[in-house]
């Protein structure tokens, strides 16, 4: 279960979710005589066109619902039950109750015995944590279930169970006693430096409002003082039908889904009148502040392990507004204004100078404030220069209008953002549609069909003038009060008063980052050719689905799978070179820098800014990943952009540029990032676990700032020139594309590449190290809270494509292990919030895999975790699981694989490397069988093979000053 802050409104949601008005406005096209009851409840007082796919209703008890048919993935139904109550609805003595209730509703209810919820939903095929979850925020609590393989019987049972949770929870003393340690463990795991910054931010930005102190997790005092009576009082105040909405989207007829809502929720009765929602207050400037420059609260926070970070907010009171198309056109203009400033700030950062990055973002926060946030990451100690430079760019934006060219560029980007959902409407998952409606309700908004969003946007283009953008820019930076928080690594760098004065000081507008007027056009047809086009030498079916394989004379091999069922989406992957094993260990820091800067260093005649310009109005991507035995470019594009996407990837291999600025920026970012890992046990694991799992191979180490400092631009070019030019190339193109057109594009790009050199192995490239067995833990340290620790126990397994089928059986074993670990250390002992077990199996290497169990807990419980994990492993060796226990794992796995296999992305991942190792085509035919068909005896045999106590090694992350076991040398 997750606690989240109020989510920032994303660009994609800006028009999909439209503000619900306070005053009545007729729906578009409605007669003036239309009765409000004829308008769907979500659209009352709105002229936004209702999305016809949603069916809305309201029960006699006041409960509202919305249902729709959606077949993505096939057979799944997504259910969301939203309660309009979060931590802002709590009294002082109830802090944390909304979240505590979320846990207790899963504990025991009318139709679920105590502690049986996880197993009950697993029997229905739902995986705990992913398919079954809940979220508590400041303003809402949402219970979520994605039911796979939904049939009338399972749907009825699911609605029955979920209705009982919400309408008739037990809330007993034993429930409270069982859930309180879990909640406290969650509180502990979410502590540390990041939590302190979040807390300070709330206190500063929302001073004088409930949001300043109302975190969903609550306080130790209020939670430990909770009683069944006090918790039930909160429940009865807010858990009532007229405060709840049920949302269902999935592969079933709306009438059927509606019938289940009525059957299981219509009998729910509320007692007494509905309590009024509490006031969330308004941001108010302190007395005596200049209304023309209302700088209020400022704070400097010292956090030695976090990078310097400065944020200030221009705050206005949040008000519910009339939901008109005109209002939404204003939101569009706001979005364009922000995009222009952010592009200018990025241009300034790329050029080098006082800040690594900066951005502006408007957000309606928890129905408490309408805020414009400005975030700055300074470079070096001169934070005042960084703040001044960012404010100067903003000062220019509010002093004179942008050019029409700048506006047109951002309009083209927005057009693509709104066009893609129209093209891909048929493949939008029901879970996303349900979540979008939940978010809309939370911020008092409606939803619109993608076609209507795009139409309204395009009809609004004449409104996006320089004068209009300037007006909205000025509104974004005008407010009741401005507040700021600066996080610095050492005391004495700044004071609260110095930060306030820096915001008060006038700045001279900086126009240097504006887009050049009449800049020379950049287009693909003017770029140099990759080489001489070449036809494929062979084209043959693979025998799997409709996938064909092409081979070019230069050695490039391509897998093509045109699929009409995924309209508007094309996935492209390019695997090349030798991955980690081809990098000399002495060059290991360049791996991290490549992940930061390789793409940004340019291709052909295009630098980073040119790449942005040439992609305007297009859907082009450029993700880069380093894998065990290959490197990979990947992107999601559209049919119209496929040829140009292929050019960018091929040009990176054949004509890479080596612009120095991205390298220097990546170097600075890597050094700044390093210290943040030490702020928590999880951060240390993110930094070091793979390094120890791979036998302390330096290529898997996170480079220290000192090692990063030794790198040079010349060294970067040398390492990555070699990596880009070596080894075989495999291209995968899956999705909605014309095969003939794709082959023609391949002939001009990857077919035109020069023949490549074989991957040159380093001296120890073939060495695959694994940690030696030991019951004495490696001990690492973090700088976070003293009550935080982490424990890891790992058993080496294997690797290689010949063992793929066994690796899938190991996934069943790890799920058995996870269920037992959850029950032991979370449910019974309450020492960890979310322990888990996972299996890794490197298909491209012959060793290096592992089964790994881990948990975050308090330092005193580390030994208990190791003992518990050892006991579970030994019991799996000594006794086969029962058939019932096995079914609780295999049925959710069956549903996961079945759902995943409805997407081409699943087959893409399974077939990576298949052109060089054709046996992988065969193993995909057995994937469902391998993940679901097994026996208790087979599981016992696998446990005996891999989980022996003398095979494992262990690691613990302790607070600074505490140690046990073997202290690591790093």
From TrEMBL:
<dbReference type="GO" id="GO:0008237">
    <property type="term" value="F:metallopeptidase activity"/>
</dbReference>
<dbReference type="InterPro" id="IPR050626">
    <property type="entry name" value="Peptidase_M16"/>
</dbReference>
<keyword id="KW-0862">Zinc</keyword>
<keyword id="KW-0732">Signal</keyword>
<feature type="signal peptide">
    <location>
        <begin position="1"/>
        <end position="27"/>
    </location>
</feature>
<protein>
    <submittedName>
        <fullName>Peptidase M16</fullName>
    </submittedName>
</protein>
<comment type="similarity">
    <text>Belongs to the peptidase M16 family.</text>
</comment>
<dbReference type="GO" id="GO:0006508">
    <property type="term" value="P:proteolysis"/>
</dbReference>
<dbReference type="GO" id="GO:0046872">
    <property type="term" value="F:metal ion binding"/>
</dbReference>
<dbReference type="Pfam" id="PF05193">
    <property type="entry name" value="Peptidase_M16_C"/>
</dbReference>
<dbReference type="InterPro" id="IPR011249">
    <property type="entry name" value="Metalloenz_LuxS/M16"/>
</dbReference>
<dbReference type="InterPro" id="IPR011765">
    <property type="entry name" value="Pept_M16_N"/>
</dbReference>
<dbReference type="InterPro" id="IPR007863">
    <property type="entry name" value="Peptidase_M16_C"/>
</dbReference>
<keyword id="KW-0378">Hydrolase</keyword>
<keyword id="KW-0482">Metalloprotease</keyword>
<dbReference type="Pfam" id="PF00675">
    <property type="entry name" value="Peptidase_M16"/>
</dbReference>
<feature type="domain" description="Peptidase M16 N-terminal">
    <location>
        <begin position="76"/>
        <end position="212"/>
    </location>
</feature>
<feature type="domain" description="Peptidase M16 C-terminal">
    <location>
        <begin position="729"/>
        <end position="887"/>
    </location>
</feature>
<keyword id="KW-0645">Protease</keyword>
<feature type="domain" description="Peptidase M16 C-terminal">
    <location>
        <begin position="226"/>
        <end position="413"/>
    </location>
</feature>
